[in-house]
Amino acid sequence: MTPLIAGFIPHTKPREITRLFSSLKTSIWAPALIRRAETGGAFATVLRRGDPDAGAVLILVRTLDGEAVLYRSMRDMDGSRIWHPKGPTDETSLETDIRKAMVSDPDLWVVEIEDRKGRHFLTEKVDE
């Protein structure tokens, strides 16, 4: 995907493309993730809307068997977004983690994806 995008933005290197997309407003980025998930045959929705410009995001991926994975975004040393998974584990413990995070961060977004295959549809690096 990066070479195609780089072709539309002249003289742009892949690392610059990553920074461009990692600096998108959350109110644009989250619906794009939902669209990718729905295009892939999964159900996705925003459970909580935070700050439209720069709110942090949690991604809850439910596999519909009582288990789920929670992805938290962080920045690596280059400033690029990287996702850290927690799980797979039972949904209730992850829901508790989400509630705690919502109390401490009023700008937090929470996106839920339901996919039997457990796909997260993230285009940024995921720490496996």
Into which percentage range does the β-strand content fall? 25-35%
CATH class identity: Alpha Beta
Helix and strand string, N-terminal first? Answer: HHHEEEEHEE
- Level of helix content? 25-40%
Strand order of the largest sheet: 1-5-2-3-4-6
Give the overall average pLDDT: 83
CATH architecture name? 3-Layer(aba) Sandwich
Class based on secondary structure composition and strand pairing: alpha/beta
Strand segment tally: 6
Biggest beta sheet summary: 6 strands, mixed
CATH topology: hypothetical protein tt1805
Shape: globular
* Relevant CATH superfamily: Protein of unknown function (DUF1491)
The figure for the number of domains is: 1
Uncertain segments of ≥5 residues (pLDDT<50)? 1-9, 16-21
Radius of gyration: 15 Å
The DSSP helix count reads: 4
Q: How many angstroms separate the termini?
A: 21 Å
Describe this structure as you would to a colleague.
This protein has helices at 2-8, 14-22, 26-39, 91-104; strands at residues 43-48, 57-62, 67-75, 81-90, 109-114, 125-126. A six-stranded mixed β-sheet has the order 1-5-2-3-4-6, with helices on both faces. It has a single domain (26-126), classed as Protein of unknown function (DUF1491) (hypothetical protein tt1805), CATH 3.40.1530. It contains four helices and six strands, in the order H-H-H-E-E-E-E-H-E-E. It has 128 residues and is α/β, with parallel strands linked by helices.
